[in-house]
Amino acid sequence: EAGVAQSPRYKIIEKRQSVAFWCNPISGHATLYWYQQILGQGPKLLIQFQNNGVVDDSQLPKDRFSAERLKGVDSTLKIQPAKLEDSAVYLCASSLDSRTGGMGNEQFFGPGTRLTVL
Amino acid sequence: AQKITQTQPGMFVQEKEAVTLDCTYDTSDQSYGLFWYKQPSSGEMIFLIYQGSYDEQNATEGRYSLNFQKARKSANLVISASQLGDSAMYFCAMRGFTGGFKTIFGAGTRLFVKA
Questions:
Q1: How far apart are CA B49 and CA B79, in angstroms?
Q2: Are B33 and A103 an interchain contact pair (Cβ–Cβ within 8 Å)?
Q3: A25 touches chain B (CB under 8 A)
Q4: Mean of the pLDDT values across residues A1-28?
Q5: Which residues of B touch A56 (CB under 8 A)?
Q6: Exposed/middle/buried for B97, CB within 10 Å: 0-12, 13-18, 19+?
Q7: Which tens digits make up the pLDDT trace of B26-54?
Q8: Tens digit of each residue's pLDDT (9 = 90 or more) over A41-92
Q9: Rounded distance between C-alpha atoms, residue A70 and residue A62, angstroms
């Protein structure tokens, strides 16, 4: 079974530039998550999708971050314009339907995209 | 509000010995789930073990076991017979109804296994 795919793996940009990350979840996984992990911290949820609808985006800085999940499969996360404090690893994860499948559905994570904003 | 606390920034253990990584949590939910994930230096998060709040027995998965003490709101991870490959960051996480099934993570504990 293929895992969660993410690209690119690394990205270096100047502040105020734009960047986009792509995620392809495990086939059949209804729930998709984007996390931001700053060095030395645990992952922080940015946005959670259930199929192609947003379940939670309370911690997404909506003035600069946007995300979409077209057709309930792949997802893209965009930052425009980037700030220095956006330097982090962006993790994508997927799981079976977290609302109907119970609490125990573990999340499967991709390798992450390491973003450096100069 | 839901919260996960991991008070050990770093831990050392001798190879082949057991080690306990601490995790305490706070929630008003009656039904919730607790998870442990491992993050090696490669960066990918790997699921280790799950404990449901209504599970009466502590969860075990191979060399991993979860010491669940509900009244104390603790969910410590025990790794038996440590191996060099266990050196990594370990994150405790929780999911509950209040958070809309959102999973929140602790700050993590870095484990170093000595040969």
A1: 11
A2: yes
A3: no
A4: 95
A5: 99-100, 102
A6: middle
A7: 998 888 999 999 999 988 899 999 999 99
A8: 999 999 999 888 998 899 999 999 999 998 889 999 999 999 999 999 999 9
A9: 18
